[in-house]
């Protein structure tokens, strides 16, 4: 998580040139809000421009796996662990009218996570769960802001060896995940900001969910669907 | 891997749907800055941040808490923050005995101090337990902040109300994420400007 370049003073030098009064600081912080809002829109446009065919292809592959009875496993560290939970729950408990699909976040069970970390090592924390739970028709999605998470890389490697469909999400230049030849799909968000990367990754996986739903609905109406 | 042109077009449409919400965030930049100012004041008084929501917003609550507890920028101070959705024993215990609408209120009443910050997240503003948590927080004197979506009238009462005017819960969720990332980053600006000591 600590891979953000530069400190606050470097990012906002104008705020440190003087003891500004509170209203001035509020106005300058508001400028920063507008700038960051423009950044995420520009980044989403970049990602759509660069990745749309690959996002669509990934969703088709995921829909094929789900249609054949596959399940989704998702994992990441820190903020990405909560994103893994968010991703799992949108598949497992989607908005009304959408198809329920089997998904599990590997970050939610404190007993399993601490047992594996304590007894084996943190690098094994997702790989061992996948080795136990995963089946060849399943899907593994690993989230890493930098791409440098060793436990995400290890889990995707195990998943690939077991025949799961493997999807990696990274930022910056892709890090360790970019070196993983076994990955079926890799989305690298071209930004140096941890925060903007996570926000754009969220749009990518929400879009994967949306297209997976569209694809499954087109293929075969599910029992109970309107 | 191949994909259909229809699939690609659907990707472009999905991404484009996010732009109005990001523009709205820019349009309400002054409000976001005011939330950061008031949160920083609470942290200076020794307050902690308490965050809660349901479903995907429960994950966001945890994400927001970890931003403050373990900052992505090296050298930033760890600030006290807890998410109320992490303890499944307590959540299911309260839910089973007193009802799910009370899961956040119960924890707030037991754990909160008057100088704290309560931040509730609800994509449509209608979550009963988030409403009750914020009502309790207001009674107890906490600073209250809401991230919601849809109609402003549905949202719980709070000192600061940031509403994403969209009905797609996933687009709302993404804009909540951008907003709370900013809250963390820009609270730091106020703390660095005025120090972490209480103001006289």
From TrEMBL, chain A:
Keyword Isomerase attributed: yes
GO MF annotation terms: carbohydrate derivative binding; isomerase activity
Family matches, as Pfam families: SIS_2 (PF13580)
GO biological process terms held by the UniProt record: carbohydrate derivative metabolic process
All residue ranges annotated as the SIS domain in the record: 62-218
Keyword Isomerase: yes
Alphabetical list of InterPro entries matching this protein: GmhA/DiaA, SIS_dom, SIS_dom_sf, SIS_GmhA/DiaA_subfam
Keywords from the named record: Isomerase
Record PANTHER family: DNAA INITIATOR-ASSOCIATING PROTEIN DIAA, SEDOHEPTULOSE 7-PHOSPHATE ISOMERASE / DNAA INITIATOR-ASSOCIATING FACTOR FOR REPLICATION INITIATION
Protein name (Swiss-Prot/TrEMBL): Phosphoheptose isomerase
Lineage: Bacteria, Bacillati, Actinomycetota, Actinomycetes, Kitasatosporales
The encoding gene: gmhA
Automatic annotation (TrEMBL), chain B:
One MF term in the entry's GO annotations: carbohydrate derivative binding
Domain of life (superkingdom): Bacteria
Residue runs in coiled coils: none
Pfam family, one: SIS_2
SUPFAM superfamilies on file: SIS domain
Keyword Isomerase belongs to the record: yes
Keyword terms of this UniProt record: Isomerase
GO biological process entries: carbohydrate derivative metabolic process
Keyword Isomerase in record: yes
Gene3D superfamilies linked to this entry: Glucose-6-phosphate isomerase like protein, domain 1
Protein's recorded name: Phosphoheptose isomerase
All copies of domain SIS, residue ranges: 39-200
PANTHER family on file: SEDOHEPTULOSE 7-PHOSPHATE ISOMERASE / DNAA INITIATOR-ASSOCIATING FACTOR FOR REPLICATION INITIATION (PTHR30390), SUGAR ISOMERASE (SIS) (PTHR30390:SF8)
